Amino acid sequence: MPGPSNAEDRRGQQELLPGIVRARVRPTRRTAPAPEPVAEVDPVARVLVDVPLAHLDRSFDYAVPASMSEEAQPGARVKVRFAGRDVDGFVLERAAGTDHDGSLTPLRRVVSPERVLSPQVAALAADLAERYAGTRSDVLRLALPARHATTEKKDSPAAVPPSAYDSGAAEAAWAAHGPAPAFLRHLAEGESPRAVWSAAPGAEWPVLVAHAVAAALAGGRGALVVVPDGKDVARVDAALTAVLGADRHVVLTADAGPARRYRDFLAVSRGRRRVVVGTRAATFAPVAGLGLVVIWDDGDDLHAEPRAPYPHARETLLLRAEREGAAVLVGGFAMSVEAEQLVRSGWAHQLAASREELRARVTVSVAGADEHALARDPLARATRVPSEVHHAIRDALASGPVLVQTPRAGYATALACERCRTPARCRVCSGPLGLSGATAPPTCRWCGTSHEAWACAECGHRGLRAPVVGETRTAEELGRAFAGTVVRTSGGDRVLATVDDEPAIVVATPGAEPVAPGGYAAVVLLDTWLVLGLAHLRAAEEALRRWANAVGLVRPGGRAVAVGDPAHPALQALVRWDPAGFAAREAAERRTAHLPPASRLATITGEPGAVDDALTLLSPPVGFELLGPVPFGSDGESRAVVRVPRSHGLDLSHALGEVQRVRSARKLDAVRIQVDPPTL
């Protein structure tokens, strides 16, 4: 029997289709739930959504359901619906109304009722985002630790009242630093003095910082201390415990575990602790009633944040002090150019020891600095370790340890032909050869290939020399020169925190110098030319900072000897111990060259086309100058440098921020904008 025709088949399908559709659609129809009533008081929450897009860096209004009204308070973490997905956010404020014409989307949920974002830190994040042409969400990623739910459910330790302030002991500890006792008295009276502190050699600076913190607590306010690294954190931690008593402060560092960091953060945000010490991660600590911010060694590049928007700890603390009316103490053995500008502008006073005090504390000399020294040792300026250094080490070992600072880590990081001085290169990849030990064969530092039978490609000679040696090779040479003397090294991944007072030679790289409890009997600075030869804007400033930090570890009445060019201004400043004068000299040269801090400078880095687009979108402020673009790096990127006079720095930040917003809204290729980079 024949089947239905195609036309009949189609008619049958059309007749059945409405019924099938109704059968499929009917079960999916549901009555929408009634909307949850909103809060009776302040039913609108202004939320900063965690979205890294610059054109969305603003608050958005959401309705607060009545069930969330008590928990959705300013500073709490929430989940909201944004662009079709659930994203994190922070409640900035609650309001009675909104400017939005339509209905508001309700909050999805309150992640945590803990008010982790204080109004002061929220305002600081806005200031930094404006200053560095970034977004508040990027700043808050640096400011707030990740939530740890288990820790949050636990109660913070009870508040401990501050110990009695011993003003006599504090002023006696600071007596050598000029008007410092007056600074402490103003702090103890609840005032907000501002100072740049040039510490004298041999000063126990952590103890002095602890006394300044005690003065701030006596005035009824909290304190925040920021130092470059964990070694300095440990020293200040011990000093605060000795001066304030146990369990009266917290330590905040980025390398602490998530539970510990969040626990200490909550102790501060809940007001249980009012003193914080840490690295740059602590600059945003929500200290209640902040009365003093301290930064030590502000020229250290560890204070510069490597993540967008690249804020510097010093600038963050200065902005915070201005906003919260806190006192400021910028300290170090050396003085940065930015700190000198604070003094020169009258914004801060200088705290420094008198010339008589400095002469009594240390004697600094340069090997072969005069004709008499050259007559005794004609090779004093050509030899890496001249006889004057040997005599200084030998004499100092009779009374205590000796610190030898060398700027390179490792054994021999560069090699050359012993005969013709041609750099030794790898036959495989043309990389530089180096030595990891006295018996190790030359090895390529790029590909790791070993060259046991190396011969010079130019002259065929097989001998090698090391133009630059590291702390391991230096320790080996000094060990042979001073037989029977203990020689220790500190650098790379083997950093010593302390050494004892027994006679020994300690060879360390900059920043890795261990602390001797009684101070070093002598300090030797080798290869000073290597630091001065760094190809960046702050080479001389950085060299003096490294040397001063080493000489600062000498005991009162000790000696320091440097090997280098005695005519160099940085070494002359070290001999005179005049970091303020050197900073003023550097600042004058930078004003002449229109370089920071005399000007506000920013870099725009990215693909050449993206950099050109950014420059096209940029509205030039008054006094605008463009340098470049020029090729940058090995990835085919280019970089442009823009600068304006310092008085128009905020205009440049606003213009760069607008570029970021337009670029983000138009989905243009990304560029990296960095305002006031530490170095070019």
What features would you highlight for this structure?
Rossmann fold; globular; seven-stranded parallel sheet; 21 helices; GIY-YIG endonuclease; disordered N terminus; six-stranded parallel sheet; 21% strand
Task: Provide a short characterization of the protein structure.
Helix content is 33%, strand content 21%. The chain has 680 residues and is of the alpha/beta class.
Q: Which percent band covers the strand fraction? A: 15-25%
Model regions low in confidence, pLDDT < 50 over at least 5 residues: 1-25
Tell me the name of the CATH homologous superfamily of the largest domain: P-loop containing nucleotide triphosphate hydrolases
Structural class: alpha/beta
Q: What is the CATH third-level topology name of the largest domain?
A: Rossmann fold
| Overall number of strands | 26
- Coarse shape: globular
Corresponding CATH architecture of the largest domain: 3-Layer(aba) Sandwich
Sheet bearing the most strands, described? 7 strands, parallel
What Rg is obtained from the alpha carbons, in whole angstroms?
31 Å
Terminal Cα span: 91 Å
Helix content: 25-40%
Mean pLDDT: 88
**Briefly, what CATH class of the largest domain?**
Alpha Beta
Secondary-structure topology with pairs:
Blueprint (H helix, E strand, L loop, with lengths): L5 H20 L18 E6 L9 E5 L13 E6 L2 E11 L13 E4 L6 H13 L4 H8 L5 H5 L13 H7 L6 H9 L5 E5 L6 H14 L3 E5 L3 H15 L5 E3 L5 H12 L5 E4 L11 E7 L16 H12 L2 E6 L4 H8 L4 E4 L2 H7 E5 L4 H6 L10 H10 L5 E4 L8 E4 L15 E2 L8 E2 L19 E5 L2 H11 L5 E4 L14 E4 L11 E6 L2 H5 L6 H13 L2 E9 L6 H8 L2 H15 L5 E8 L1 H10 L7 E8 L4 E9 L3 H17 L5 E5 L5
Parallel strand pairs: 6-11, 6-12, 7-9, 7-10, 8-9, 10-11, 13-22, 14-20, 14-21, 19-20, 21-22
Antiparallel strand pairs: 1-2, 1-4, 3-4, 3-5, 15-18, 16-17, 23-25, 23-26, 24-25
